[in-house]
Batch of 3 targets.
Target 1
Amino acid sequence: MATHPENTHVNHTFAALVKADAQLAPLAAHPYAKAASDEQINAAKVGLEASGFKVHLVNDRSEAFDTLKSLIPNGASVNNAHSTSLEEIGFITYLKGETEWNNIHAKILAEKDPIKQSELRRTIGSTVDYYLTSMSAITKTGALVHADLSGSKVGGVAFGAANVIILVGSNKIVEDEAEAYKRTHEFALAAESARARDAYGVPASAIVNYDVIRKANPFNPNRIQVILVKEALGF
């Protein structure tokens, strides 16, 4: 069995944050933190495929890592949004080392001038060959739902990047768009705010941009692929 890199951000998993952050603690046993049933997982897969998305169903973090790695060709330019899910499978740790790809995220972070770094996020960061991220919810009706503060994630996923690979745990599965909105604003935002308090010393995060992707792009139907993991990942 292959050995995969460890998560170097274990303090920012949901399990760690609920223990460390008093504001998040009431959500410790929330159903949105738990893996879905096989029935729910299959329903979500069917819904996403009916919407035109390519879905790779995997059992665990190890399979998720191997699948994600296999989908990105050598030499491709790669960027990622912040994603606890990507951290949890060890992929962010892997990206920080020598890889087969052109790591645009590393180049962006190497620029220390805030204005120049923001410009890099807008230009080369959004127009990579492969953009890696997660979602705050996926619906059984086949929609992908996510949000951000700056717009860099939503922009790259919606149009900028040539290809998008979404890694999502089964804990993100919800019935419909109404529940996706609820999960994003009441659960995911609370967890991300706890992470932001620890990582950046700010009172909370915020949702400025909210995006629902209901169908694959009819002009480029293979652009977005989803790796659906039977385990719980991220928040």
Note: DSSP finds nine helices and ten strands in the chain.
Target 2
Amino acid sequence: MANPPSDTTIFTLSTNSLKLDTADDIKPHLASLVKSTNVTEIRLGGNTLGPGACEHLASILSSKPSLRTANLADIFTSRLLSEIPPALSSLLTALLPLENLHTIDLSDNAFGLNTQAPLVDFLAKHVPLKHLVLNNNGLGPKAGVLIADALTSLAARKDEARKEGRDVPALETVVCGRNRLESGSMAAWAKAFRAHRGVRIVKMVQNGIRQEGISVLLREGLKECSDLRVLDLQDNTFTLVGAKALTEVVGGWRELTELGVGDCLLGAKGTVLLAEALGKGANPALRVLRAQYNDFDARAVAALLTAAQRGLGALRRVELNGNRFSEDDVGVLGLRELLEGRRARARGGEEEEEEEEDREEGENDEWGLDDLSDLEDESEDEDEDEGDPAAKEDDSEEEIERDGKAEKILADADREESSKVGQRKDADVDALADELGKTGI
């Protein structure tokens, strides 16, 4: 792991698994934070903090203008739903005015509809935000829409601040995985990404997004993000419909270095289409392609090899495990040889013992093919459809149906935007959100 910059001063709770309910509980652990005049990062994860403890911590954080990164992941384990909003509100109210705070990680905390209000208000207003990490928060599609809408509002605030002559960073990183966002929230997320066209890293893995939602996200949102470096949508459902949407937009990401589409049901046809798109040379910076468990066969591997040879000169890592081919297939052997040759040239022909040291230290992980230990036998299911007009007609009908569903997602989102039906929340949460809204930057 890379060492922190030399000017970084990190505060972390001395031990993990602390249960800190009150101000008296947390005070003994904050002595060094209280004394610090240049703390740049706080790490509180692995402890569980109650409202009283958070209120006291917040009173200290509000006086730390040098703070750049707040890692607040996994700080509410075992807490009641009624405890989380006031605790979260105290912390975010304190962090909101900090002009140097650009990174916040709130992963592994429960932010469903009952607890999301303080977070939504903070995200809509914290103009310095550059990097947002929200993994495993139990959002669901409705809270997911609220988070996405908050980011859209944030874009407008950033634009207003720039017009006032302030130096405002772009939102560069959005990580929102394992949150059950589903297709129903994708119109809102597409709108958010259109508003933040400077985003560079997007990771939205394992969200139950189906092909119509993927199509909306890609065509209506991420298509506009020409600076995109990393896109990870693994463990969502593409099928051929989503694969076609990806092929339409991937050429616009010239700076893309990593593409994660593993476990997305691309199938052989979808993977071949993606390979053909990547082979056009519009993604010369692509270094890593993750395509495990996609139900494709040797033909797709051959297409990936051709793409790597013709249009992906920087490609160094391809993950293919869990698909339907043999390790001895010509395409696999060719791809392995190509990637190993590139590694050797990049390393200047190191000796074997040095390469072995690299493997032991884990430096080889992002080169070559992955471990192909879970391959399936190649079946002839795909072959049966080749050249079959009825099969092609079925594909066309499926695409029309999915496009119709994607249009419905957008139409539903437009109606929701027009109606602005109020969300039911506890009175206490409403009060906390109002209080948070009074705090300006």
Note: The longest strand covers residues 10-12.
Target 3
Amino acid sequence: MSDSSYIIPSDAPPTPTSSSTSTEVDSLPSSPTTSSLEDEDTDDGREESDAEREWKESLQQLELLLTMVVVPYLGKYFGRKCAYWGWAKFMEWKYPVEIVVTSEKTFKGTGAIEAAASL
């Protein structure tokens, strides 16, 4: 077996740093008890944590609303709008035809209704 700089022989005595590390870990102070932490909390601190928790819940609900309803709806609406524009440009290029939208308000309203129809 060839000697490699990465392999430490198993019959080697323990290094002095490993024994000093174990004594340092043993001498670390213990963590504070929960009763001392409860003494530091006041009623205002608990109310702030409740308000903070409610704030985080409301942000989570807004995020869900955006990701589940608003973003898909807008994506579908603008995707269809882009597809209609692209198809009109293609048809104008392929055939000498001019596509005219007679009522812009009706066109936009129909697009919004179509986008919402299958949600």
Note: The two ends are 68 Å apart (CA to CA).
